[in-house]
Design a protein that fits this description.
6-stranded mixed sheet; 37% helix; binds (3R)-3-hydroxy-3-methyl-5-(phosphonooxy)pentanoic acid
């Protein structure tokens, strides 16, 4: 019996952000979130069970320490549900998008790993359980188990079995494009995990931020259903700014923005004021992601490439879910 499988998954960008946990050990979100899955970027992961120990190769380089430990801990969840002992796994993964793009490679990486590791183990999980599994690698990965527009539920159960994503609409429902304005390259100095923990523990605005999430999700869900660009723009920009406001108010402040981030936000606002359908969002990094209509994407890309401090622009569009190859 072959015990190997390969899967691909796309990263996603949250329109209503996830920032804070209700349980750190189980990686349970403090509130829901809503995202769009984005291609053509993808992670591609091959898992082969039956090894003496776990190994992890990312983009051609064998990884030890933290990254390997994270993958191993994740694989333990698969070992726990498999019918027979699986042994160690050789995990080989690559991303076809630059880490510098600030797209959460953990979202596509853990979604692809969840699909490949279970398939190789002969474990068939319903999609919600696959999302629960992916969540244990990274919160945003729970959403990359689906394509299109996706909602993540915070759930209420202590075991987190109800903390998973569900699909809202296929990519074809509203094929928006995304222009990513890459500003400062290189690793960020505070991970999303540390940033959200510090915000939760020290920011006086954390509670206020969490209180905004459920109404924002309801509004974003309606906006996507109605394909109401202005409504989605307002709710997505507010969610990003509120998330960052809560983080900036932590002690010490968690500040992911650089000068070019602010300049790119102003450029997006100017474009929208002038009638271009475009809005911005920013994740736990300095880059600006601009959602736009397909026929405006060239103009948005040109305008953002022209912002001082923007080193490059990347293009993406709403895409489908993981694939088992
Ligand atoms: O899933 P994580 O731990 O990579 O955290 C994701 C945090 C944000 O990207 C800032 C927001 C989100 O909902 O994706």
């Amino acid at each position: 019996m072959t015990q190997t499988a390969t899967a691909t998954a796309h990263p996603n960008i949250a329109l209503v952000k996830y920032w804070g946990k209700r349980d750190r050990a189980l990686n349970l979100p403090a509130a829901g979130s809503l995202s769009a899955t984005l291609g053509p970027f993808r992670s591609r992961t091959t898992v082969t069970w039956g090894a003496d120990r776990d190994t992890f190769t990312l983009d051609g380089t064998p990884r030890d320490g933290g990254p390997l430990a994270q993958v191993s801990t994740f694989l333990d969840h698969v070992r726990a549900v498999a019918a027979a002992p699986l042994g160690g796994a050789a995990v080989i993964s690559d991303n076809d998008f630059p880490t510098a793009a600030g797209l959460a490679s953990s979202s596509s990486g853990f979604a692809a790993l969840a699909v490949a590791a279970t398939a190789a183990a002969g474990v068939e999980l319903p999609p919600a359980a696959l999302s629960v599994l992916a969540r244990q690698g990274s919160g945003s990965a729970a959403r990359s188990v689906y394509g299109g527009y996706v909602e993540m539920d915070a759930g209420v159960r202590p075991d987190g079995e109800d903390a998973h994503a569900h699909p809202l609409f296929d990519a074809s429902h509203w094929p928006l494009e995304v222009v990513i304005a890459v500003t400062v390259e290189g690793e960020k100095d505070v991970s999303s995990r540390d940033g959200m923990n510090r915000t939760q523990q020290t920011s006086p605005y954390f509670r206020a931020w969490i209180d905004e999430v459920a109404p924002a999700i309801a509004a974003a869900r309606d906006a996507v259903r109605e394909r109401d660009f202005d409504k989605l723009a307002d709710v997505a920009e507010a969610s990003a700014l509120q998330m960052h406001a809560s983080a900036i108010a932590a002690v010490p402040g968690v500040l992911y923005w650089r000068g070019a981030t602010v300049e790119a936000i102003h450029r997006v606002r100017a474009l929208r004021r002038a009638g271009t359908p475009v809005f911005f969002t920013v994740d736990a990094g300095p880059h600006v992601k601009a959602f736009t209509a397909p026929d405006a994407a060239d103009a948005v890309a040109a305008a953002l490439a022209d912002v001082p401090g923007v080193s490059s622009v990347l293009r993406a569009r709403v895409a489908g879910g993981p694939e088992l190859l």
